[in-house]
Design goal:
Length: 148
């Protein structure tokens, strides 16, 4: 477990926004989503969307969470968010669809996690935008929408 005790700024800061955007495309941004029980706390443990565990000691206002950049290195950034991410859960019904779903998720830089045979997409926009990219497979019944 890595301990973090400083803040580099906010995701919306002009000097950080461009850098984080580029890092996001390269897959170098981890996100930590905090539920209501942790908002306002100065010290807590949390797990990122990549499964890494952190011990966090917040400086400044502990209630101001969303978009706080905790780590900023050339090949890694960690950003804190308030609330749970919206997700779209999908299941490929055969191998061909699984390959297509994996290709789309990777090629389009979707943030995903896997839960058994499920692909859980962490949404950065409307679910409809994601589904539009795989609609032929959904319509053919090769990719099932488990939840959105």
């Amino acid at each position: 477990m890595e301990t973090i005790s400083s803040t580099f700024g906010w995701e919306t800061d002009p000097e950080l926004a461009d850098q984080l955007h580029k890092m996001e495309h390269d897959g170098h941004v981890e996100r930590i989503y905090l539920g209501e029980t942790l908002i306002g706390r100065r010290r807590f443990r949390a797990t990122s969307d990549r499964g890494n565990e952190y011990g966090i000691i917040l400086d400044g206002d502990p209630a101001r969470i969303d978009g706080r950049v905790l780590i900023l290195e050339p090949d890694r950034a960690v950003v804190l968010h308030q609330g749970e991410p919206e997700t779209l859960t999908l299941r490929a019904t055969d191998i061909e669809a699984g390959i297509q779903l994996g290709w789309h998720a990777g090629h389009l830089h979707w943030r995903v996690r896997f839960d058994g045979d499920l692909v859980v997409v962490l949404l950065d926009g409307p679910a409809e935008d994601y589904l539009a990219r795989i609609s032929p497979y959904v319509t053919a019944g090769q990719i099932a929408i488990v939840s959105s």
